[in-house]
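User: Working on a comparison across species. This one is Amino acid/polyamine/organocation transporter (APC superfamily) from Paramicrobacterium agarici. Can you predict its structure so I can line it up against the others?
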Amino acid sequence: MSRNVAATDTAPARRLGVPAITLMIIAASAPLTVVAGGATTAFSVTGSLAVPIGYIVLAIALGIFAVGYAAMSRHITNAGAFYAYAAQGLGRPVGVGVSLVALIAYNCMQIGIYGMLGFQVSDFVSSMFGVTIPWWLVVIVCIGIVGWMGVNRIDLSAKVLGVLVALEFLVVIVFDVAAFANPTESFTAQPISPTEIFTPAIGAVLAFGVAAFMGFEQAAIYGEEAKDPKRTVTRATFTAVGIIGVFYALSSWALSLAIGTEKITSAGISPEEAGPPLFFNFAATHLGVIVVDIMSVLFITSVFAAVVSFHNAVARYVFSLGREQLLPRGLARVSRSGAPWAGSVAQTVLALVVVVLFAIGGIGSELGPLYPVITLFTWLTNTGAMGLVLLMAVIALSVIGYFRGNPNDAGPWTTLVSPIIAFLFLATVYVLIVANFNVLMGQAETNALTFVLPLLVVVPGIIGIGWGIALKSSRPEVYENIGRGAPDPLPDAEVLDAQP
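Assistant: Here's the predicted structure for Amino acid/polyamine/organocation transporter (APC superfamily) from Paramicrobacterium agarici:
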C-alpha cells in the first residue's frame, strides 16, 4: 500500500561509526579464510616466500590509493561510491560504465563466496555427524538468512559481524603465537625481508594477495549511513587497510614458520594436504582437536561474514542506481529503519538464481564435493577481484579529474601525486591478474573461461559508457543527475510500505 513520505524516507539512516564500518570492511576480507586458505594457496602456487612482504606492499599501495579516495569521500557522500566518484571525476558516461562493472564485480564476489560456504558447511556436518547435506541446500538457507539481515537495520549486521570478526582474530592470533613458538624448521625473517620484493614471483604474489584486501574500499559505500561521513569514512578506510595489512603479513609469516619455508612453497604438496589442511593440521598438533573444531566453525562464520558484507555493498549500489534511475526507481525503496530493502531483495533473488543454475550444472559432475569450490567460488571471486582492481585504478584517475574541476586547499600529494602512484600500481596489478588468470583459476591450461570471465567485467563497462552518452540526448533529466544523488523523494504512488 502507499503512504505519505518525507524526503528522508528514501535515504538510509545515519547509524554507523568508525568501529562498525571498519568491522564490515574487515569482515569482507574474511581474515581466517585468507590466512587458512588464501595464504596457504598463494605460497604453494607461486612457490615464493614473498607472500608476507607482499601483503605489506599491497597495504602501503592501497593506503596511498586511499589518500585521494578518502579526500573525495569528504566532498561526495553517495551509496554508489565508485560510481559517483567516477561520474564526478571523469564524466557521467564513465560513471555509468563504472556502475555496471561495480555491480558485476560485487555480485561476483558475494555469490561466488557462497560456493565456499556451501562446501565448508556440508563438509563439516559430514565429518562431525556423518550426515550428507547438499552444498546447494546449505547455500539456499544462508541466502535466506543473509537476505533477512539485509532488509533490517544495518547496525544489526554490524553487531553480528563484529562478534564474528573478533573471534576470527582471536583464533588466528592463537595460531600465530603457537607458530612463532614452535617453528617446524629454524626461525627465519626471510618471508618479511624487503629483498623478497625483487624475486621473479612477486607479480604472481601480488595478483594473489590483492584479493585479500577486497572490501576495504567499502567505507565510502556506507557514507550515507555514517554518523559523520566527512570523518568516519576516512578513518574507517585507513584503519581497515592498516589492520588488514599488518595482520595478514604477521599471520602468513607465522604460517610459513608453522609449515616450514621449504614445504610451504613446494609444488609437491599432495592435494589432500594443500590449502587449509596445512593450517588445521598444525593447529591439531600443537593446539588440540577441540581448538581445531572451534577454528573449523569460525572458518565457516568467516566466510558467512564476508557474504553478509558484500551483500550489504551490493544492496547499496542498487539503491543508489535506482534512486538516480539508472535502474528501476522502485529499487531505491528503503525500510523504516533506513535499510535499502529493495536492493537487498534484488541481490538475494539474483544470488538464488545463480546458485540454482550452478547446482543444476553440477549434477553428476566428476569434481564431486569440490564442485562448488572449483567452479562457483573460483570462477566468480577471481572475476570479482579483477573487476574491483580495475575499478580502483579508474577511481585513482577520478581523484585527479575531480580536484582539477573542484580545486580546494588539498595539496598536490592528495590531489595528484598519490593518485598517479596508485593508478600505476593498480593498473600493474590488474595486468598481472590478467596475465596470471589461468593460474588463479587453477587451470592446467588456458581455455575459453580464461578469456570469457575477464571480458565479463570489461565489456559491460564499455557498454555502460555508450549508454551514458546516449542518455544525454534520450533522457537528459536522468543524465544530469548521474552520480549526484536524488534529493527529492519518490512520488507517493511509487512508494510501498516496507513492512513485511
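For your comparison, note: The chain has one domain: 7-494.

User: Helpful, thanks.
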